[in-house]
């Protein structure tokens, strides 16, 4: 594959990753505002929101180093779909559980996207970009691990609150 083709694929992937992280924010921010009975979940989401904002900055820096910019259209489209996804669970009686499942799936999607981007970066010789993307990947893995490890506790808390007749959904 030519250097130009690899560069084009890398740039497209970076723009997609930027839109993906914009979507992640549009999912997490409404969710965290609604959380009432799961303070540990809210605290971890606040931390990951800050991490995600840093990830966006890293992607923008890589794009800038390539004299490129993120796609405002892709960002807007995925932000909209993220907001709709977050709103879709608000009507569920088990909103916290549905959000937990969806968030775990989304984190693993992000992990796969970063693994692919890192491979492209390394193949194309974009080593500084690969290093930045590895930081993003590590944060996504940490969040996915946290969600995985805490799903039983969130589920137990949901059951306890529901059994006590308290508001359990968020």
UniProtKB/TrEMBL annotation:
<protein>
    <submittedName>
        <fullName>Ferritin-like metal-binding protein YciE</fullName>
    </submittedName>
</protein>
<dbReference type="Pfam" id="PF05974">
    <property type="entry name" value="DUF892"/>
</dbReference>
<dbReference type="InterPro" id="IPR010287">
    <property type="entry name" value="DUF892_YciF-like"/>
</dbReference>
<dbReference type="InterPro" id="IPR047114">
    <property type="entry name" value="YciF"/>
</dbReference>
<dbReference type="InterPro" id="IPR012347">
    <property type="entry name" value="Ferritin-like"/>
</dbReference>
<dbReference type="InterPro" id="IPR009078">
    <property type="entry name" value="Ferritin-like_SF"/>
</dbReference>
């Amino acid at each position: 594959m030519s250097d130009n083709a690899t560069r084009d694929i890398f740039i497209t992937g970076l723009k997609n990753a930027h839109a993906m992280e914009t979507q992640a924010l549009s999912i997490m921010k409404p969710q965290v505002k609604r959380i009432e009975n799961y303070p540990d979940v809210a605290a971890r989401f606040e931390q990951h929101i800050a991490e995600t904002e840093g990830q966006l900055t890293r992607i923008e820096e890589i794009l800038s180093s390539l004299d490129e910019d993120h796609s405002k259209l892709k960002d807007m489209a995925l932000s909209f779909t993220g907001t709709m996804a977050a709103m879709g669970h608000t009507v569920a009686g088990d909103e916290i559980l549905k959000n937990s499942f969806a968030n775990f799936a989304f984190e693993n999607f992000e992990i796969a996207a970063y693994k692919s981007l890192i491979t492209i970066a390394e193949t194309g010789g974009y080593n500084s970009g690969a290093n930045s993307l590895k930081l993003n990947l590590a944060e996504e893995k940490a969040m996915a691990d946290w969600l995985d490890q805490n799903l039983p506790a969130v589920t137990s808390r949901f059951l306890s609150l529901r059994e006590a007749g308290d508001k359990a959904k968020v």
